[in-house]
Amino acid sequence: MNAPAIADWPDRLFETLKRADIAQVGYVPDAGHSRLIECCRADPQIHDVVLTTEEEGVALAAGAWLGGARAALLMQSSGVGNCINMLSLMRTCRFPILMFITMRGEWEEFNPWQVPMGSIVEPVLKLCETQVYRVREASEVEGLAARAASQAFGDERIVAVLLSQQLIGKKVWTK
Amino acid sequence: MRLDRRAAMATLLADRGHDLLVVPGLGSTTWDLAALGDNDRDFYMWGAMGGAAMIGLGLALAQPKRRVAVITGDGEMLMGLGSLATIGIQRPPNLAVIVFDNGVYGETGMQPSHTQSGADLVGVAKACGIATSLNIEDEAGLVDLAGRLKGLREILFARVAIEASEPPRVLPVRDGAALKQRFRAAVGVKA
């Protein structure tokens, strides 16, 4: 069985972030990112910055780059809406930012309130001149994340990796 | 008592030293900073309202050997009030967040801001875990703050009461990419 290897994609994503020299990770707590957040918090070389809203992480990444450091931002699809105006800062100044977005509202979603934002994440990000990658299978995570990182910091661009809801799994509402 | 904003900026940054990096907020604090003369170590802001404190945090974490001063206005700080909670957790010792509070939104026609009706920025900063949160209302307090900024060794928040005046605008470079590049060069980041 290769199930454990597939389920460890957050660990492999973390290793990819380390190889890409990510020094600051901003996040709003999120179930889909919980393992990756744990890894970041446990690493003394990474400043893990818990945010009150996702747009704070966009400004954080701009400041990091001004000081020569690379930052990543972890969020859920609903958080993309909170970032839109602050992404103007990145576009105007050509600041790089690498975003990992766990998708809600697109597959086996119990909560209809997740659908309006989840359904427009891709077009909205593209309007903001974001290079968008979509991960559907665990085996794709590492390769796409590495490519996204080199593009973000090499070209000073906004790059987002969308992690499909199939990858994250269904949220359990009753226990 | 309320202080003159241009004089306050000049006092805070007199003999600023080579290691001080300044992030002003959108609007008047950017004009105040530009009025002191163009400086590669200042990241002038023409947008990103609500983002100044977080830009300062990212910069302070990336440059632990340099001092970072965010000097912004009350309206800009109010838009990013949550960032005080975020900074209150990180508490980088090389970061100062200073708010010029005139109680109005100066850029849009002097409409009253929340601080005029009781929103207490010093109280918020303290409650978010920034132990040294100061209320500066006179020249002596300002001189004390300038001294603390010079020898910055712990996270600092200060609200400076300033007059609701509108001194002539001094407009810095508007090209954001150019501002970024020269700032990075000034702090020695390789392109």
Layout of strands and helices, then pairs:
The complex is a heterodimer of chains A (175) and B (191).
Chain A: H1 3-7, H2 9-19, E1 22-27, H3 34-42, E2 47-50, H4 54-66, E3 70-76, H5 77-93, E4 97-102, H6 115-118, H7 121-127, E5 130-135, H8 141-155, E6 158-163, H9 165-168
Parallel strand pairs in A: 1-2, 1-3, 3-4, 4-6, 5-6
Helix pairs in contact in A: 2-3, 2-8, 4-5
Chain B: H1 5-13, E1 20-24, H2 28-34, H3 52-62, E2 67-73, H4 74-79, H5 82-90, E3 95-101, E4 104-105, E5 111-112, H6 121-127, E6 133-136, H7 139-150, E7 156-161, H8 176-186
Helix pairs in contact in B: 1-7
Give your account of this protein's structure:
- The complex is a heterodimer of chains A (175) and B (191).
- With 175 residues, chain A is an alpha/beta fold.
- Chain A has one domain (3-168): Rossmann fold, CATH 3.40.50.970.
- In chain A, 49% of the residues lie in helices and 20% in strands.
- In chain A, helix 8 (141-155) links the parallel strand 5 and strand 6 (158-163).
- The longest helix of chain A is centred in the middle third of the chain and has 17 residues, at 77-93.
- The model of chain A has no long low-confidence stretch (mean pLDDT 93).
- Chain B has one domain: 3-Layer(aba) Sandwich (Rossmann fold).
- Helix content of chain B is 38%, strand content 17%.
- Chain B is built from eight helices and seven strands.
- Chain B has a five-stranded parallel sheet, with helices on both faces. Chain B has a two-stranded antiparallel sheet with strand order 4-5.
- In chain B, strand 4 and strand 5 form a beta hairpin.
- In chain B, helix 1 packs parallel to helix 7.
- Chains A and B meet through strand 2, helix 4 and helix 5 of A and helix 3, helix 5 and helix 8 of B.
